[in-house]
């Protein structure tokens, strides 16, 4: 492909991406159940890794003065710019669709 054509394709792709990003309607995603293959893969991870070893948690908490599970940061105008509240789902049980190691790190 000639350099000019490549640039045109790149510009068109960029414009399409920008137009898509400007869409006001969010995508609606319906969660699906884990397949048998996914469940067996996650079970293998559970059996292969030392999830009973909680030493890393103790090391991470060493020196921790206080935790703030409902932390919300606001800017000078009072607008929320960061909040831990939407992440509270992580304290629940891990869904079958999520890798156990990733859930542990979250």
- Uncertain runs are none
Can you list the strand order of the major beta sheet? 1-2
| Overall strand count | 2
Number of helices: 4
Bulk shape: extended
Q: Decide which structural class fits the backbone.
A: mainly alpha
Please report the distance between the alpha carbons of the first and last residues. 44 Å
User: What is the arithmetic mean of pLDDT?
Assistant: 85
Please give a structural write-up.
By secondary structure, the protein is mainly alpha-helical. The chain contains four helices and two strands; from the N terminus they run αααββα. It has a domain of 68 residues. A two-stranded antiparallel sheet has the order 1-2. The mean pLDDT is 85.
Give a brief rundown of this model:
This protein has 106 residues and is mostly helical. Helices cover 42% and strands 7% of the residues.
Describe the protein's topology.
Layout: H1 3-21, H2 36-48, H3 55-61, E1 72-74, E2 80-83, H4 100-105
Name its key features.
single chain; 106 residues; mainly alpha; two-stranded antiparallel sheet; 4 helices; 2 strands; 42% helix; extended
